[in-house]
Amino acid sequence: MDDGRETGLVCLQIVYPDTGDTEDPSRTHTLIATFPQEYPDFPFEISVLPGSNFPPGPHLNPAGNLCLLTDPGNNWDGSRDILAAFLQHRVREILRLHRGDKTVTAAQEGLRQTGYVSYAPGTAMLVGDWAIPAEIDRGTFLWRHFPLDSPHRHGRGVVTEIRTESGDPLGQLIMGKKWDSMLQDSRKTTGRWVRLPSIPRGLDPLAEACSIWPELRNMTGANDLIGLLIPEEKEKGGGTIDNWVFCLRTFMIHPQRGNLLAKHTLIRAEQFSNETKWARAPRATHIANKKALIIGLGAIGAPLAWQLARSGIGELLCVDYDSVQIGNLPRWLYGMPEIGENKAACIAANLQLNYPPLFAEGIEYQIGTAGKNKTGNQRFQAALDNADILVDATGQIAVNRHLEKLARQRSIPYVWAYGSNGGWGGVIGRSVPGCTAGCYDCVQWRMLEPTAQGQEEASGAPISIRPPPAEDLPDVQPVGCFNPTFRGTGFDMDQVSQMAARLVVATLCKDTPQGSDCYPDFPWDVAVLSQWDSQSGLPTVPTWATYTLDRHPKCPWHDD
Questions:
Q1: With pLDDT > 90 as the criterion, what percentage of the chain qualifies?
Q2: Is 262 helix (H, G, I), strand (E, B) or coil?
Q3: Which of 119, 126, 258, 325 is deepest in the core (most CB within 10 A)?
Q4: Which residues make Cβ contacts (< 8 Å) with residue 355, sequence separation at least 6?
Q5: Are 342 and 335 in contact (CB under 8 A)?
Q6: Looking at residue 34, what DSSP letter applies?
Q7: Are 198 and 209 in contact (CB under 8 A)?
Q8: How many CB atoms are located within 10 Å of the residue 38 CB?
Q9: Do 175 and 183 form a contact (C-beta atoms < 8 A)?
Q10: Sequence-separated (6 or more) residues with CB below 8 Å from residue 374
Q11: pTM score over 0.90
Q12: What does each C-alpha distance from 520 to 293, 294, 497, 509 come to in angstroms?
């Protein structure tokens, strides 16, 4: 027994009688129970002594630990659970299950077997969701180094093609226009792969692979990458899937003896696929084929573009004429390395790089500039003609009116969003052809001409909209800033951009067939945010007042 003075752990060695072994009822297994320093707040672990004849199976992970709890972080109760009970019941159930007793429903942790492998820090190999026939047990693959990595960095890359041993193609990995282009310029290397019946155990992770395919004992280069295709549980009790573990084999010189030693670096596989991408956000899958045109990439537009990119939208067309300045940074998406860059180009480049297969394009253009920048205008018009939705985060009334007219002419939805001075509130809204009766200006009329409370319904007049609270202070214009701007923190403005992103996604999903698992639509068209108290000047819990977009009789932008 280790009393914990040196390691901080208490370890008990247990000789466990295996009374269920029909061939040898006297068989025993040596188990190690390890108690963490934080016990009983956190559970002990029971591991199998290396070299033991404990029957292998899904509840013995590669680290030698027995999987005792379905969810150790939530299913453990230190006031109730004791080691003796686990030894008497859980360990016995695992032994029966590993010997083929189908009546046992032993608990298993949600972490898959490959999650227990001791991977080298900072390593990853991207793979596709290839369905490799079970009868094919070996082959080759092409992989390329991560485009942005140093040439001297090893252990990160993308498997772009996988083949049989004879070279027949089994699958390719397509990552979108930006990444596919970068990968074409990246260093290409050939690796080999082999199918294993289970995850490798022991000191040599390639021992079993070499016994199946002896040619693997011969290295093909200074950095020899070998893929191990391993079956593991898809879900608890839900069949199996193939997963990958990669082993980078290199030679190093022994520091004392001077002879060559083989070094094995285990690398985690990351599957780049729609299933992996949408597993956490299935309701957003419908926007994968949608194109959004967003104008204005400031304190609201930039975070809004980011929200749409990480939600999986297919294309983002970003328009802004301004450049990134020091004064933008407290409430902008990126920082110092982007100073001087055009905002639209910066947002598009960064989002396309970080969220493949997104296609993003930055267009430097200022709307309403009397014929200046004809190239920018042509690109803007082309983007507008191909967009599924127009998103306006400019916060400029003249631009708002013009963009809504352009959207109406093309029968696409128009969404606008802006914040009030001080970040005290904001407004988001939408006009959707064939769905909403009013327009952007109808909302302004309803804010300017509030009717007496309680009289709206009786008189048939449009319900008034209360404007958001706003700080009564002048705009600011830091040194070098071309235009005055409102005050307000980035985290206050984020309330507006987040709700605007929800409205954009909900609007794009309006045409989804009924019954589909998509992001539901809102029963309103305009929402006004209040998150500061106008009287006290103190922040409050954000609240939204919502309205339908009805036509205002005085609005001049409608045909009778």
A1: 61
A2: strand
A3: 126
A4: 309, 310, 312
A5: no
A6: E
A7: no
A8: 9
A9: yes
A10: none
A11: no
A12: 21, 22, 18, 7
For the chain, counts of helices (H) and of strands (E): 13, 19
| Phi and psi at residue 52, to the nearest 5° | -70, 160
Show Cβ contacts of residue 57 under 8 Å, excluding neighbours closer than 6 positions: 94, 97, 98
User: 75-105, pLDDT tens digit by residue?
Assistant: 899 999 999 999 999 999 899 888 887 777 6
- Structure tokens, 199: 């995850």
pLDDT tens digits, one per residue of 314-348: 999 999 999 998 888 989 999 999 999 999 999 99
Whole-angstrom Cα distance, residue 391 to residue 400? 10
Q: Which of 506, 425, 439 is nearest to 469 (CA)?
A: 425
CB 308 within 8 A of CB 403: no
**Closest listed residue to residue 16, CA positions, set 92, 110, 97, 67:** 92
Contact 332, 298 (CB under 8 A): yes
Q: How far is CA 104 from CA 31, 57, 82, 234, 237, in A?
A: 21, 13, 21, 19, 12
In 3D space, the residue among 446, 438, 375 whose CA is nearest the CA of residue 408 turns out to be 438
Spatial contact of 527 and 504, defined as CB atoms under 8 Å apart: no
Q: What is the residue type of 297?
A: L
Question: Residue 437 carries which side chain, given as an amino acid letter?
Answer: A
SS3 554: coil
Q: How many CB atoms lie within 10 A of CB 129?
A: 14
Residue bearing tokens 């919502």: 546
| One-letter identity of residue 461 | A
Q: What is the C-alpha end-to-end distance of the chain, expressed in Å?
A: 90
Residue with tokens 């001075």: 421
